[in-house]
Amino acid sequence: MSTEPGPHLGPEPDDDLTVVRVDQYFPHPPAKVWRALTESDLLVQWQMQGVEGFRLEVGHRYTMTSVPRPNTNFSGTIEVEVLAYRAERMLSLRWSDPSPLNSANWTVTWSLEQEGRGTRLFLVHEGFDPDDPAQVMARKIMGEGWRTHVMRSLGHALERM
Question: Residue span of the signal peptide, if any (predicted)?
Answer without folding.
Answer: none
